Amino acid sequence: MPSNLITPPDIVLEKNINVLLINAETNDVYMVSKILEQVDKDYNVYVYSSGMNQVNWLSQVIELADAVIVNADYEQNLDLLQHENTFYYGQKTYFVPAHKIVNPLHYFAPKIT
Hints:
The chain is α/β, with parallel strands linked by helices. It has one domain: 3-Layer(aba) Sandwich (Rossmann fold), CATH 3.40.50. Helices cover 23% and strands 23% of the residues. The chain is built from three helices and six strands. It has a six-stranded parallel β-sheet with strand order 1-3-2-4-5-6, sandwiched between helices. The longest helix has 11 residues. It is globular and about 35 Å long. The model has no long low-confidence stretch (mean pLDDT 86).
């Protein structure tokens, strides 16, 4: 199965690894789409920004997600950073269970073949 980039209101129920990008910049989403062509696993990458106003969809996808990647520079909901499967990036640093990464590509980089 190929990897998928998914936006609200869609949900894909394939057995791919589910990753949610929250408030990623356009260039970050583009770079993730390019790196998905190089990884040896298939992903469902859900893309959400606060302006989409799809809170129910976001809640559903958070439950499905194997990893949540948050751009902390544009996210005000720090509750998202309280989960072990959460990664965040940006200028801010928080003392939370979430893992700080340089950018979304950092999450996928170890998985490149």
